[in-house]
Prior knowledge:
This protein is α/β, with parallel strands linked by helices. It has helices spanning 14-32, 45-51, 57-64, 88-98, 122-125, 165-180, 196-208, 222-231, 243-257, 303-315, 320-335, 353-364, and strands at residues 2-10, 35-40, 68-73, 103-109, 129-135, 143-151, 154-160, 185-190, 216-221, 238-241, 264-272, 280-286, 338-339, 349-350.
Amino acid sequence: MEYKIAILGGDGIGPEVTAEAVKVLQAIGKRFGHTFSFRQGLVGGVAIDNTGSALPPETLRIARESDSVLFGAVGGPRWDDPKAPTRPEDGLLAIRKQLQLFANLRPVKVRPLLAGASPLKPDLLEGVDLVVVRELTGGLYFGRPKRRWQTSRGRRAVDTLSYKEDEIARVLRVGFELARGRRKRLASVDKANVLASSRLWREIATELSRDYPDVELRHLLVDTCAMQLVQRPRDFDVIVTENMFGDILTDEAAVLAGSMGMLPSASLGTRQGDKPGGGRFGLYEPIHGSAPDIAGKEIANPLAAILSAAMLLRLSLGLEREAAAVETSVDTVLADGYRTPDIASPGMKQVGTQEMGRLVVERTRP
Length: 366
Ligand code: IPM
Ligand code: MG
């Protein structure tokens, strides 16, 4: 069977880590008898440089014509001018919005092998296995008005946190469904003691919970959640929350896993895949950014990108065995003692980006 995958590497380490994920997909295709056809598109700063737009129409078309999208990262100091008409990040936000990818799944699983890479105490990390469902196409990122202007008494800027009922309900349902297939505990995270949008969020979560009597729902304020994530992370199963709360909490949660370089993500919408056994169309990306400081140095950890490819296989293409094979290969490489610098510890074998990719590829072979 042929699967079409759009490859949008972006900026900084984005193309470096994505290239390793592509190699892993090719190896998986060979082993399991699938053809993955890849089409590259420009996005982010590199797209601005080449076309003037952070998400050129051609890129959007390639993404739409594919079964799923593998995304690297965007941004960098070159495009940081506050007066610039567009920013690399606009490309990422636009593709999420245009493809209606409203649910961003960010699993945080602590691998005992990497417990030493986290600054937190190992006993605190034991058994941590949670998923954050971040609302991705609304909230503070997209609300209007959003602008900056000059007043007679100085500069002023506004962002807006706004949600419609159906936007909240559909992402909450993703959280409930996911929890139902796991340990059946859902934490709905908001700031209902201050924000009107959060009070609506909480109300809808409570209403929906009647459809999921088997799932235990608790409401948690975002500041409390931030504290509990490092105090007793084991208590969390599924967390569902507003766009920016989710952005912040997942960087924090990455500390549990030892490195940002380990965390994959899936952004899903309503569009179904059209392959037999296929899941939902989605965009898959590491949760880390373009890390311009280490770009081109061959030291970036490609595992978040590779694990994102595993999520792509599972959730968009319905290829569970293939996804599991990738994840097992990653675990084996780590068990064999190979580490990129971000997860290095004494006595381990330090490797670069491409070598890490090659080691994973090698282990996908039967
Ligand atoms: C993320 C990133 C992005 C976001 C940036 C690059 C726009 O931080 O995916 O978490 O804020 O959503
Ligand atoms: Mg982020």
